[in-house]
Amino acid sequence: MGKILIIGAAGQIGTELTLELRKINGNDKVIATDLTTASEEVMSSGKFEILDVLDKQNLSRIVTENDVREIYHLAALLSGNSEKKPKRAWEVNMDGLLNVLELAKDLKLSKIFWPSSIAVFGNTTPKVNTPQITIMEPNTVYGISKLAGERWCEYYHAKFGVDVRSLRYPGLISHKTEPGGGTTDYAVEIFYEAVKHKRYKCFLSKDTMLPMMFMPDAIDGTIKLMEAPADGISTHCGYNITAISFTPEQLSNEIVRYVPEFEIEYEADFRLEIAKTWPATIDDSTARRDWGWKHKFNLSEMTEVMFRKISEKFQV
Ligand code: VAH
Questions:
Q1: pLDDT digits (tens, 9 = 90+) for 96-107
Q2: CA of 212 relative to ligand 1 center, distance in Å
Q3: Superfamily classification of domain 3-170+215-240
Q4: Which mutation among 16, 81, 114, 117 tests ligand 1's pocket best, with the greatest number of atoms within 8 A of CB?
Q5: Is 0.85 topped by the overall pTM?
Q6: Residue 67, by phi and psi: left (phi above 0), alpha (psi -120 to 50) or beta?
Q7: Residue 126 burial (CB < 10 Å; 0-12/13-18/19+)?
């Protein structure tokens, strides 16, 4: 079996996915890359190279020199940052994906993973129990790039047989990496602020319900999808998956169980307008039917682990 390449190994998903794939396949089987160095755990557990996914030559060199057969392409600008730099976001999110898909076609790579997002849905999409197949009219730069990316993935699978697989991730919550410019970042920041300062100023409104997931569930789901038999995969654009939906107020009420004096205030910024276009809850029955997706962590269980791990990190 050839090697696995992670593009974006310094990011929120990439950090944990690299470590899990190294645990499963062996450290020497997984090559981590990013524009900047990654966490100490990623850097010390296996091979790392600096890679800009827009540099086709360097990407091709790393793939061929290391006999890479699978690529997890995670590098992208998230929703908040994409609104600030639309052209750059389109370039990284689109040209980066096309570089990977072209390489997969030319070198007949065995599998590609690319993350889509609930951001592909827009204001005209049904917000409750959003179906796998529905109206998708995103009006954010990030959502437009993810919808276009989904169509490219379906195209490269249909036209060239590229086995590219994708998940429409909800907001992801993890304690290993700081948030990276997304709209759902509040659900990570709030834990750090609660532990360090016992207060948090939330940039969404208290009743903004969004689909979310604890990172261990996202990593398990990603690997389960990639290990599923090809004939069981019914869509190559991006499976709806979800775990828990909650509002900032509901999350704050969970946090108060650990920090009774915790105070939250709400001062909406541009990201509230992004969040308002996204679903509140997701129908992920297709993923559960096709390849056995199921989440493990509910809101209370996630909160307990987040508090324990972040408190350890700050020795409080
Ligand atoms: C973001 N965390 O907030 C990402 C995610 C569903 C949101 O794609 O941009």
A1: 999 999 999 999
A2: 9
A3: NAD(P)-binding Rossmann-like Domain (3.40.50.720)
A4: 117
A5: yes
A6: left
A7: middle
